[in-house]
Amino acid sequence: MVPFVAVLGANFSDIWFTWIFAALNIILLFRTLEVMRVRCITNRTPIENLIMAITFGFGTIALWLGLGGRIWFTAQTISAFGIMFTLHSTLSRRWPLATLGVGMVMLTRVPEALVGIVPLAVYLHDLGIGRRVQRQWHFQPQRWPSVYELGAILAPFAVALLIHLVHNQLYFGNPLSIGYDIQNQQNYPAIKYGVVSWHYIWPNFVVDFLRWPSFNYVDPYDVKPQLDLFIDGMGTSMFFSTPLLAIFIFTAQGKTPQPWLRTTFWVAIAIMLVAILAYCTTGWRQVGARYIYAIYPLLFLLLAQRAAPLDTRWVGLAGMSVFTNLLLAQRFWEDKSSIEFMAGSAGIVLLACIVATIMIRRQEQPHEEIVPLVPEMVTVGSAYSSESTSQRALLEQEGVIPYQPGERNPQS
Fold first, then answer.
1. Omega before 285 within 30 of 0, i.e. cis
2. In terms of DSSP H, where are the helices of 173-295?
3. Are 18 and 74 contacting, i.e. CB atoms less than 8 angstroms apart?
4. I need a surface site. Which of 49, 92, 173, 321 has the fewest CB within 10 A?
5. Which pLDDT score is estimated for 129?
6. Range scoring the smallest mean pLDDT among 133-142, 322-331, 403-412
7. Three-class SS of residue 248?
């Protein structure tokens, strides 16, 4: 924000600045889902990808985080943009941009830079490390990258890391300190176990996954209990703020053309989640659970990798997610909940769900369970380059006929 403040001064709005990145997150998620469609990682249609991206923007805590322009929430919104940028660049095989995205995340929220596990794993996989041939694992690369290639890939991250270390040295007197240790000593002496400790895992787990809103009673005879969405600002479960994510618990994932990529996403989520749960606070003051916002982009890519098509149940859960986050946003920023707003939001969401259902049913494309026909090794290059066409022609000459989303499997 510094360059904008230098030019515009007091006229610069951090709220508009946050809104721009929140909107870019929706666009970038859609583009990432489209890369997955073009590379036959998923069998989604553009309409389904669009519905998923809109659900992310309005049906998760991304909505209220992106509204107010507070510095902590702006940082999280920009970090989410960096995570999206990293994932998009990784799946497009643009490695310098992928490490640039990791560097961007590190400069906003350091623990979330663990998303760098994804580009690292995909790059190693493309080199042939960890491939399985005839039931045997092979960990020797099929090719060794040149020093020039590694330098070009790592340069953006190295520059970001240098900026980060210099910043920490100048501000906190230690290149490895990000300031929270000093802040806790000065302002929060009640925090006894440091910035990161296993002692914090259970209370954070309760807020992130188990805690739900409550009802307030004036007295034992109150016949009109009031819903309390804020409940002291400690936060509520991600399954309350985004009911759509309950799909991961109650339904099977189904087949995917590249199971190793799905495994990579889950491993990255698990490692990032451990770092989040071991942090000394839950994210107070909040509605929902804002610290786990960093894993939402990966969760939505995993939603796209599921074999089942979007149906009425999916759209219904997405609508519930949007409705819930509209209420949470009003409660947090306006400090109230009104019947009129609830009714209006319910009507808009219901209409949106009807439109989404009609769009899905009018696609008139057979939506079969996807089968891994093309090789998992993908050549380096953009998902939208001419390499996809040449690769398809080569596979056809070899008797392997890849099919695009919406086409019937020619080998079935």
1. yes
2. 180-187, 201-205, 238-241, 247-250, 259-277
3. yes
4. 173
5. 87
6. 403-412
7. helix
